[in-house]
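Researcher: I'm preparing a figure for a lab meeting and need a structural model of a single chain. I don't have an experimental structure, so a prediction will have to do for now. The sequence is pasted below. Please return the structure as tokens so I can convert it later.
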Amino acid sequence: MTPDAIAERVAALPWAGLREELDTRGFACSAQLLSAAECRDVAALYADTARFRSRIVMERHNFGRGEYQYFAEPLPELVLGLRESLYTELAPVANAWSERLKSERRFPPTLAEFREDCCAVAQLRPTPLLLRYGPGDFNCLHQDVYGELVFPIQLAVLLSEPGEEFTGGEFVLTEQRPRMQSRVDVVPLRRGDAVMFAVRDRPVAGKRGDYRVKMRHGVSRILSGSRLTLGVIFHDAA
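Model: Understood. Here is the structure written out token by token.
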């Protein structure tokens, strides 16, 4: 599928509702963003090591258990199309969040322009990735921050069918609120479903105006089978 066709699919999503969900909950889900065939095609790329710039075994770094690989450039067309078109739709949300958090950072309207900003601060390596988990694997709560410049929203697409290809492995989000206990969301996903979520900080409306909460995400322990996920992060890595 060409980037233009992907852009049309992304533009047709119910963005008013998705943006409201991002504002109120810090995440928003889109059912069946990718078809089952597209999920299988993307998952099959994991075995093609020439497609990737690096492979991380999570246990070696105390990140959890499992592994992931960062795509090299040029990105696969489907991944590139998602990254470019989703950035365009999410940039207004990112700018609204920056304004509410009293930040001077503003994000340009296109991914190409944003990547120029990344380049200016020596963030040069692409960050879209494939993650693979097997029985007993998990991903500790974390934030995908790769340098000074951080786009505040990212995307994950589940490529495997829960209950058929794996069990366990729920996607988990935590929200650390000032002077309060953390709140947890478990996000139910099927194969092809996407979740957009806050990378690190997001604004929450309070009685005295907006305040900042810290977000983290992870994956619970895989009980059986194999779980693959596509991650689309918009800022590049230093």
